[in-house]
Design brief:
The chain is α+β, with helices and mostly antiparallel strands and 532 residues long. Strands 3, 4, 5, 6, 7 and 8 form a 6-stranded antiparallel beta sheet that branches. A 6-stranded mixed beta sheet has the order 10-11-12-15-16-21, with helices on both faces. It is 43% helix and 22% strand. The chain has 3 domains: 90 residues, Pdz3 Domain (Roll); 224 residues, 2-enoyl-CoA Hydratase, Chain A, domain 1 (Alpha-Beta Complex), CATH 3.90.226.10; 88 residues, no CATH class.
Length: 532
């Protein structure tokens, strides 16, 4: 009887607390509703009540944390698309070249490839509407070519600058890949680069590992998460699960109103035994940090690069009544050692978002000793008891300073002003068939094609035509870099993004360091055992 009494008392207390909470929320709801009615009824000028409500919602969320955000109903689909992993369209990669819609690639197996559209084709009309020479923008292209699966779009193609051909294309699901590149760095080291953690990421990763293993002995893996801003927690767990042995905590989440939830590795993993290097930088956030943190905490591999972003908050999407959405922080996530790597945000959203610039000012991008650490947030890795820190991203085991030589400014200006991209498009437009005939495989192109001095001279002149003054000192310094970059863009447009990275990465500092460490097993093992 006494036990029953205590149960009743506990229930009444809980009900009372919930009622008080509900009453408090209701009071504030009534308060805000009355304000809106007063503005609508008595304010001196006309008002946009929808906009006022949205401003109030955004302001409220800004008071919570930097990652709780409001998304209007018009933005919801665009926000979801990169993570869902597909959209409805015709399946082409394009560029707006000299005010004309130029097809760079067709998606293999996609609607455009099926009807015979080819790289190099120019789309001059869509549904009988001229789209050449009208000041076309990317949004205008998306609005015309994307649409519901199964719907028809008619396009007119100008091929070889001579004949026009009409095509009818039935729109279909077009995949958005989260894996940029997968290839062998050397005879026993595989490389995979992920740009986000989307719904299809695990499937893409597993397939890439299996493809690498199919023709090679893969003893080492370099997983490139630089610039990867995150995505779904589930996919971060599943990628970590591919690397960790069974029954290891990958990550756990917990919040005031969200009980602790542990994510534990399973028996199935495509790469549980080989040596691992994970590359990170200031753009590696959220889901990327879950993977890097799990690898580091279990002493499973070496982290190379610069300190990651520092996002340790978990958001859940909640739809509002008009189809808009809020992504509300509901929990923190913690690495296996118990670290929360969320960086502070008590000084406000603006300071939080300026953190990466402040890191550069402090010298953190150039010197590991400049990384701010909090001694009270020291933890130990779970196997070898190395010291690691929470409170602001994942710090690398091997630090690589960023290369910001002033001599790159000239070339980077050419890149930002699209001079380089337009130059490559012009070159490819004139030489696509000759290149495909001469270099019948990427290996042939990689080993034998060279960007010559004549091509570079044309690029520098193109810059001068856009009032970018030639800088001979910079040119002398960046010539090899420019040749490699141009060759990589050509490879991407002739093949895929994977071939682009294979060329660019040949002189990449972090990758060269990874290969150096992986080639020396004694050094690799000593880094995993050293106390930081």
């Amino acid at each position: 009887m006494r036990k029953l009494t205590w149960i009743v008392v506990a229930y009444l207390l809980l009900f009372s607390a919930n009622s008080i909470f509900a009453q408090g929320t209701q009071n504030q709801t009534l308060k805000f509703s009355r304000l809106l009615r007063l503005v609508e009824s008595y304010y001196a000028d006309s008002t946009d009540m929808e906009k006022l409500t949205e401003v109030a919602i955004i302001s409220l969320l800004n008071e919570l944390d930097p990652h709780s955000v409001y998304i209007s109903k018009d933005e919801v689909d665009d926000m979801n698309e990169p993570l869902v992993g597909s959209f409805d369209g015709i399946g082409v990669s394009f560029n707006i070249h000299r005010d004309t819609l130029l097809v760079i690639q067709t998606i293999p197996g996609g609607p455009s490839e099926k009807v015979g559209i080819m790289a190099g084709d120019r789309i001059v009309a869509i549904d009988d509407e001229n789209v050449a020479g009208i000041g076309l923008t990317n949004k205008m292209v998306f609005d015309r070519l994307r649409g519901e699966k199964g719907t028809l779009v008619k396009v007119q193609i100008l091929r070889n600058k001579k004949e026009t051909i009409d095509f009818e294309i039935i729109r279909d699901k077009i995949p958005i890949f989260s894996l940029d590149a997968s290839y062998m760095l050397n005879k026993n080291t595989g490389y995979i680069k992920l740009n986000r953690f989307a719904a299809t990421t695990t499937q893409e990763f597993v397939q890439a590992i299996q493809n690498l293993k199919a023709g090679n002995t893969v003893e080492n893996l370099v997983l490139d998460l630089r610039g990867n801003g995150g995505g779904y927690l589930k996919q971060a767990f599943e990628i970590s699960d591919q690397l960790l042995p069974t029954s290891k905590t990958v990550v756990y989440t917990e919040g005031l109103r969200s009980p602790r939830k542990d994510y534990t590795s399973t028996v199935e993993g495509e790469f549980e035994n080989g040596n691992v290097v994970v590359l990170i930088d200031g753009g590696s956030a959220s889901a990327s940090e879950i993977v890097a943190g799990a690898v580091q905490d279990w002493d499973r591999g070496i982290i190379i690069g610069r300190r990651s972003f520092g996002k340790g908050l978990v958001q859940q999407p909640y739809y509002l009544t008009d189809g808009s959405m809020v992504r509300l922080t509901t929990a923190h996530y913690y690495t296996p050692s118990g670290r929360c790597i969320q960086k502070p945000y008590s000084d406000g959203v603006d300071d939080y978002r300026n953190d990466l610039a402040e890191r550069a000012q402090r010298g953190e991008l150039f010197h590991k000793d400049s990384i701010a650490i909090i001694d009270s947030l020291a933890y130990k890795t779970l196997i070898n008891k190395r010291i690691v820190y929470g409170g602001g991203g994942v710090s690398p085991d091997v630090f690589i300073p960023i290369d910001t030589s002033i001599n790159y400014q000239y070339y980077n200006t050419l890149v930002r002003r699209s001079i380089v991209n337009q130059f490559v498009l012009d070159y490819l437009d004139k030489n696509r068939n000759d290149l495909k005939n001469k270099y019948t495989s990427f290996e042939s192109f990689k080993n034998h094609f060279e960007v010559n001095s004549e091509m570079l001279e044309q690029l520098w002149k193109a810059g001068e035509e856009k009032e970018i003054q030639r800088n001979q000192e910079s040119i002398d310094f960046i010539t090899d870099h420019a040749k490699r970059h141009i060759k990589a863009i050509l490879a991407r447009d002739l093949w895929t993004a994977s071939e682009y990275y294979e060329i660019v990465n040949s002189k990449d500092d972090e990758i060269l360091k990874a290969l150096e460490i992986l080639s020396d097993k004694t050094r690799y093992n000593s880094l995993l055992k050293s106390i930081q």
